[in-house]
Amino acid sequence: MLPGMGGMDPKQMGKLMQQMGIKSEEISANRVVIERDGANIIIEQPQITKISMKGESTYQIAGQIKEEAAISDEDVKMVVEQAKCSTEEAKKALEDANGDIAEAIVKLQGSE
Asked: Is the pTM of this model over 0.85?
């Protein structure tokens, strides 16, 4: 039984939702990425539920959450030009520096 639902068990809840025109489905995924300016939210091993009602869909996502710096192509290009390194090295340095361009360049120049 679900707490706060007046003793209603999951089957009863499902029937009630169906009567109200609410559909619920589980969606499988390995990872969910929410892209934001400055940092991305990464959800590993997500449990995703899609809830549809009156032509609108809502997604509920739960899982192991972490944030990582969003690294733009412009940032990578700048590091490549300044540190005279490969694109792969620049991306790795930016990831290690949590998106800090100056720190990535200094680390790469120090490893020469």
From this structure: no
Range 58-65 contact pairs with CB under 8 angstroms and sequence separation of 24 or more? 59/27, 61/32, 63/32, 65/41
Percentage, residues of the chain above pLDDT 90: 61
With a cut of 90, say whether residue 10 has pLDDT above it: no
For position 49, which CATH number holds? Answer: 2.20.70.30
Task: Give the Å distances, CA to CA, from 46 to 10, 22, 69, 78.
Answer: 21, 22, 20, 34
Q: Are 77 and 85 in contact (CB under 8 A)?
A: no
* Residue type present at position 41: I
59: amino acid identity, one letter? Y
